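Researcher: I'm preparing a figure for a lab meeting and need a structural model of a single chain. I don't have an experimental structure, so a prediction will have to do for now. The sequence is pasted below. Please return the structure as C-alpha cells so I can convert it later.
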Amino acid sequence: MQDLVLYLDIEKRYVYNPLMTDLKQQIKELIISALEIEDIKPENIADSAPLFGEGLGLDSIDALELGIALKKKFGVKFSSENADNRKHFASIDALAAYIEASGAAV
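Model: Understood. Here is the structure written out cell by cell.
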C-alpha cells in the first residue's frame, strides 16, 4: 500500500498530494541509482529521515553527485554559496519540497 502524502496548505488544512508521493519515489530511486547504493530499496528510505549522518549516511561527495543528478533529472540548481543547501538536502521531504517550489517537479 502506497503511503499517503499530506502537506499543510495556507489555510492549515491537510491535503493529499499524489504528485508529491511520485516525486519522493523518483528522488529515492535517483539517490539509489546515482550513488550506486546496492543494499537499500526505495521503500527502506523514510521520507523524513536525515540523508546525512545517522540517517542514510551520505557524505559531502555524495551530496555533490546527488546535486548533479538532481539537476539533470529535475533541472534544479544548487549553489555552493547558498546557505539553504543544508536545509534542502536534509531529507527526502525537504528535497521534494525544494524541487516542487522550484517548479521543476516532473
